[in-house]
Amino acid sequence: MIRWLKGLYHPEAFHGVRSRSPYFEGWYHKIVSKDKRSIVIIPGMYRSGVVKNEFSFIMIFEGATGHVHFERFHLSEFSSEIDKYDTRIGKNHFFENGIDLNIKTSNFSLKGSINFENQNPWPVTFTEPGCMGWYNYLPIMECYHGILSMHHSLSGSLSLNNQQVDFNDGIGYTEKDWGKNFPQSWVWVQANHFRKNKISLSASIARIPLLGTQFAGFIIGLLIEDKFYRFTTYHSSKIKNLSLKEDKIEWVVKQKELTLKIFISLGKKTGLLFAPDSEDMIEKVEEHLDSKVRFVLEKNSKIIFEDDSDFAASEVVGDIEALLKLANDN
After folding, report:
1. If pLDDT is split at 50, 70 and 90, which confidence band does 3 have?
2. Is the dihedral of CA 302, 305, 310, 316 positive or negative?
């Protein structure tokens, strides 16, 4: 119990040392070069609760092509610290200040190092141990979420299938998930490349099971320079509208005198990411890295900030109609 409680204050660290099956844990790194070439790199581990199947993995999603490479490793090749982000999978190293990659198979290769600087994590305090707030204290949640850095600068380069990709002066974002399973349905959008400097938006809403019921839990972080706005379920933020029409999403939330409006246009190119299932990790999460997002932040009905990005990551997964109903009934 003491180890579990200590782990709450380190969302970046490994939480699965004494976890029961089923269990998964994965760190999501989105790295974008100065010329806006995006690559998602996800290291992690998986353990089925139905069959004897456990392994570690590294998943790579190339935004330019939509190609997803899923490399499995024996679980013995996985090691991770419980008080900091320091994870090794085979010859690959993932840690707080960067990643070192060395993957080579008959049809795929990725090698190089990327350094992270000036990171902006979601604050971790006793009253708010990360982006899930007090829900993090409940040991019965299906899935836990952490935002390790809303925005950070990159340096270094990668050789992807023998093609050099320069990430100097690039921008990165890091989050993670761990637990028994992903939610049944969710909407997620994330962007760093807005018209103005140092702006990052991360917004997600999902159907959350809890004690035989369900609710629409949401986490929104908006970083504007050094000002961090948080709109979340546990901050008593209220959804005024969440709607999906074809490939466009409108989301309006209110918290006291602040109102945040988010407008999402889903991208054209899709990568199919692997996610935990009962017996294995399978392809089931469609992600775009070419979506568009616009936000408007109002205080007492007066616009105090607005901006847009045509380089956003987004996911719309599962029974969205059920999620919309839960969200709009609140």
Report:
1. low
2. negative
